What we know:
Elements: E1 3-5, H1 7-20, E2 25-33, E3 37-45, E4 52-57, E5 60-65, H2 69-72, E6 75-82, E7 85-91, E8 97-98, E9 105-106
Amino acid sequence: MAITLTETAAKQVRQQLQRRGSGLGLRLGLKRTGCSGWSYVVDYADAVAPDDEVFQQHGVSVVVNRDILPLLEGMSLDYAREGLHAAFKFHNPNVKENCGCGESVTF
């Protein structure tokens, strides 16, 4: 599997989808931004396009465009609370460098 979700991340996605009342799962993407070049995009997946790949784990669907799969291959997505902050945490073996502010990565 190219992308894995921890049980904690899957639970968070299920809760968010339940609150939202709709959605097929989680959509992962990338956009060009920041000082290192790329930033992760996390959104709801409401549909699956012909050029999407769908991964199932812990009862959650993760939808990713095939064009960016090489950059996300082997990535693990977790969800963690640190003090008052809670966020998805990306563990991507393809990242060569992280931005100093933590907002973007280089592949």
